[in-house]
Amino acid sequence: MIEHLLSMDQLGAADITQILDTAETFRHVADRPIKKLPTLRGRTVCNLFYEPSTRTRISFELAAKRLSADVINFSADAKSSVTKGESFKDTAWTLEAMGVDAIIVRHASSGAPHQLARWVKASVINGGDGQHEHPTQALLDLFSIRDHFKELSGLKVGIVGDIVHSRVARSNIKGLRTMGADVTLIGPPTLLPRHIDAWGVSVAHELDPILPDLDVCYLLRVQAERQSEQLFPSAGEYSARWGLTKARIERLKPDALVMHPGPINRGVEISAEAADSPRSIILEQVANGLAVRMSLLYLMLGGDKS
Amino acid sequence: MSYLVTGGRVISPRDGIDERSDVLIDGGHIETIGQGLSAKGAERVDATGLIVCPGFVDLHAHLREPGREDEETIASGSDAGAAGGFTALCAMPNTQPVADSASIVEKVWALGREAGTLQVVPAGALSVGLEGERMAAYGAMATSAARVKLFTDDGHGVQDAGFARRAMEYLVAFDGIYAEHCEDAGLAAGGHMHEGERSSSLGLRGVPAAAEEIMAARDIDLCRLTGCRLHLLHISTARTVELVRRAKDEGLPVTAEATPHHFALTDELVESYDPNAKVNPPLRTDEDCAAIRAGLADGTIDAIATDHAPHAPEEKELDFASAPPGMIGLETALAITMTELVQPGVLSLDAAIDLLSARPAAILGLDEQGSIAQGRAANVAIFSPDERWTVDPNAFRSKSRNTPFAGREVVGRVRYTFFEGRLVYSGVAE
Lengths: 306, 430
What we know:
The complex is a heterodimer.
Chain A (H helix, E strand, L loop, with lengths): L12 H14 L17 E6 L5 H12 L3 E6 L12 H10 L4 E6 L4 H8 L3 E7 L5 H15 L6 E5 L6 H12 L3 E5 L15 E3 L11 E4 L4 H5 L6 H8 L3 H4 L7 E3 L12 H4 L6 H20 L5
Parallel strand pairs in A: 1-2, 1-3, 3-4, 5-6, 5-8, 6-7, 8-9
Chain B lengths: L2 E10 L4 E10 L2 E6 L8 E4 L4 E4 L1 E6 L12 H10 L2 E6 L10 H14 L3 E4 L15 H6 L6 E3 L8 H11 L5 E4 L4 H4 L4 E2 L2 H6 L3 E2 L1 H18 L2 E4 L5 H12 L4 E5 L1 H5 L21 H12 L5 E2 L8 H4 L16 H10 L6 H8 L1 H7 L15 E11 L18 E11 L2 E5 L4
């Protein structure tokens, strides 16, 4: 297995399959009375979070603890040394000196995990970097989709919304393409990235004509600040054209899935009815995140690596 | 002190010289150029196999003093320049405080004289505090001891076309040069690299080429309107090169410079997310790089300038988005020019020397620079055109280390630099 997980570019179809298959064996740990395995006893995993996060941090923390690793959480909040001017490199070296085995890093700046990986000996796992990638989110999404359709190859996946600013979209596009799924990006032109001929995806500006073809309708969070940047006229207009409403959900195929990386903005990119509809697997995604992260930690840190 | 430089190939494009000659430097001047010279008491400098040419003139360097003396000082920047073969450089005004008044430019000029390793030519700000609103003290700076010729808000583009027009109109009175950092703030806002395929996949917000081209086109129109001399700093896109080419065809008083990093590197370097690859304007595409080379080769671009921009290590050890843009370049300019332009045959040696010395000297009107001729001040660079070396930032004389060329094997190395007849740099051949 790879030393660092910085980008989905690093994972081929066989790697992804191995991670998902291994996650399959871990998903049932949660059903046991004693939800803990001794696999990573004596290993230390650090959650280095420069951005507020609830689900990713907790998911990694729980995944590491279920594997018996020691976990330290380093959040760069108002009280930490980071805001006192300590450079990113100094922080990295401090953690290195403490002898951690893996660092899960979340950072508002794209590429921060790449820099960290150059500075430390520990394994670095990208927990979301700026507008670049969020590989473990993509892995858990692939796991969730595969769980329903058994195969990823040939599925039609629409990713709707703010693609240009989305690390989730970039990682999912790479993972889905690697696994042979067809991907269409849908949204207003101001929220779609430009110069993406090499991505192997289709682009559409209208959601309605595509809905009946989709196996998966993946909605991205539309951040309020994008409206203040004037990337679209109003939340209302966004919702009217690209929001997944009750009427739109009925135009999906009967077995199509509705997904969202969370946290959701009810009433903007997804209506309450759509979020809570039986087609929505938003909570499954969260549950699967734990199994996938256990799998990844196990594969990267377990075994005979000294 | 007098020096007899023997056996070198003397190239001075402005003087039409390209010959194997000895050069006798005495009393601060070029005393004689000729074959088989001898001079009693003169220190011999063996230039066999080396090029003897006018000292280089950098139209664009940030010396950081006053304000950020931890990153560079006028003295350390001058030393770095001398090590790079430069005998004059234009010091950008975005210091702290900003060089927008006679007192600041005179201070910079005086510190340059005091350091004494090259001619520091202060540039003045276009607007008070670089805020783009009120005119800086153009007349006072132009007539001060610093004799400011070039005015710029470098670091920012002048956003208000009305202000740009008035500044150009006024500068005509002093034959001043309006020098623009072409960047539309609205288009560039939040950008960290060139906008294109790579910025999309790296998830870094890009600066579109249009941010530069729009302002270059506007300024060329204002140049036509006002008749003011216009200099475009660090041009980086294919279309800007074309705009300059057309302006020159039209006979407008427009000049332009390009940096070694813009003709040697592309946005591919950003894939490492190494903040040393971050610069403004950003590294562009292969196509832009090729257009800059073509513009240098056909004379559209007038000068190779470094945009030497020192930054403290702790500022470049941040994440890519937080790190400030800028690269140092005084000590690598010749080698990158030789490696990327002369060796591959894009430029002749003569043209490269012209772009590094005589042509920028002419833009600034520096009579004692850019020429090796009898009786002129001895501002001379002597370099090996074929010495291979590996760029090691720790060996730099600059106080800063932020170069994208670290570890790169290059060809062409400065061996000696004379400023006003004094040997201010002497590098050891490896």
